[in-house]
């Protein structure tokens, strides 16, 4: 079964392997397979589910809501997000204005078929809306019982500090940040993680397998596998491009004996690696087939020894991205 961790400086626990439906539901994966994968996640002990209104332009929330329908609401945790353009994508159908946050939470609750979400997240930082307006709207959402906790995604250290200060003044908790993080993409370690540790904010990390590259299935000098994420423009192909260089793929292949020595598959090693960071509350995993989750959940509770961690660092150090300045390039300076 899957272990649990506290989310930020709160009493709220989430499954450290959390199911995310970014590029699968209503997109890469058919309806019946999506439902079956959610049910498999529950069978394996995953109770936390991450989605967003923008995924498949709201359709991914509908699929997740259907998959969880009929279950006792206390048995699972739902995270969703607001920021990116949705629906008709008009001028107020995006960003973190008070209007869009309230339209967003009402739409998400309806699509998910629940009375509240456990965690409502700012999907990016909105430079066009005063932070005070955004945080006041989140405070009101919490007070109305429509979300229990508030989180953000891909905020910089300074943005986290400012958001935390306002949330404290307004009487609610900013408990989490959702950044990209893997053994190949370590940009949060320099500033975001130390600031988060100081403030009592956890990381819910996406792409712990670097879009599948750390699974080892992409080989240097070879064409990408047919049907893989790298071939599908709808399923994150542009995110994986940065990792498809031969020097990166050669470095990843050096992890094969490391994983074998640790008694893990390559995906398990990648997920276990991010979970060694005590500031990480959960690693987001997706799946196009239920059996993929059976492998992934075995990373829960794994403790990597010092020699294994050193071997991973040695293999990937020449190609891993560690520059904290990358965290300042994620949120658009203007709304899409």
Automatic annotation (TrEMBL):
<comment type="similarity">
    <text>Belongs to the shaker potassium channel beta subunit family.</text>
</comment>
<dbReference type="InterPro" id="IPR005399">
    <property type="entry name" value="K_chnl_volt-dep_bsu_KCNAB-rel"/>
</dbReference>
<dbReference type="GO" id="GO:0016491">
    <property type="term" value="F:oxidoreductase activity"/>
</dbReference>
<dbReference type="Pfam" id="PF00248">
    <property type="entry name" value="Aldo_ket_red"/>
</dbReference>
<keyword id="KW-0560">Oxidoreductase</keyword>
<keyword id="KW-0521">NADP</keyword>
<dbReference type="InterPro" id="IPR023210">
    <property type="entry name" value="NADP_OxRdtase_dom"/>
</dbReference>
<dbReference type="InterPro" id="IPR036812">
    <property type="entry name" value="NAD(P)_OxRdtase_dom_sf"/>
</dbReference>
<dbReference type="GO" id="GO:0051596">
    <property type="term" value="P:methylglyoxal catabolic process"/>
</dbReference>
<protein>
    <submittedName>
        <fullName>Aldo/keto reductase family protein</fullName>
    </submittedName>
</protein>
<feature type="domain" description="NADP-dependent oxidoreductase">
    <location>
        <begin position="17"/>
        <end position="316"/>
    </location>
</feature>
